[in-house]
């Protein structure tokens, strides 16, 4: 185990470095501003295009890195307030459907076959 620990640490550090490069590359890609649908024979292809109409690759963000983009969202203070007022609820008991409880059946069983 002591020999494996430095090797494992090095592998994990390289993994973090490689995934951070992937996130930086995804952030630097040209953002698609439109989608073009091409009908080719019996199938359709969807191509993302930039502002000049040139095809671009759709950015693929890994799920682990997407959480870092949450920092770009507005703070909760800028969101509209939510009403927390208590209100009474009125139920129409005359027309409410009442479910009948299922009839209970005996669940007794006989002794084991070996007796």
TrEMBL record:
Residues 1-26 form the signal peptide. Keywords: Signal. This is DUF2946 domain-containing protein.
């Amino acid at each position: 185990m002591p020999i494996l620990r430095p090797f494992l640490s090095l592998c994990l550090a390289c993994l973090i470095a490689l995934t951070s490069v992937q996130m930086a590359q995804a952030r630097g890609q040209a953002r698609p501003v439109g989608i073009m649908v091409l009908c080719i024979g019996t199938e359709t292809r969807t191509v993302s295009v930039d502002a000049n109409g040139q095809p671009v690759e759709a950015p693929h963000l890994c799920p682990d890195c997407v959480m870092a983009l949450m920092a770009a969202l507005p703070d909760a203070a800028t969101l509209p307030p939510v009403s927390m007022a208590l209100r009474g609820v009125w139920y129409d008991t005359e027309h409410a459907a009442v479910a009948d409880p299922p009839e209970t059946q005996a669940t007794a069983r006989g002794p084991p076959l070996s007796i």
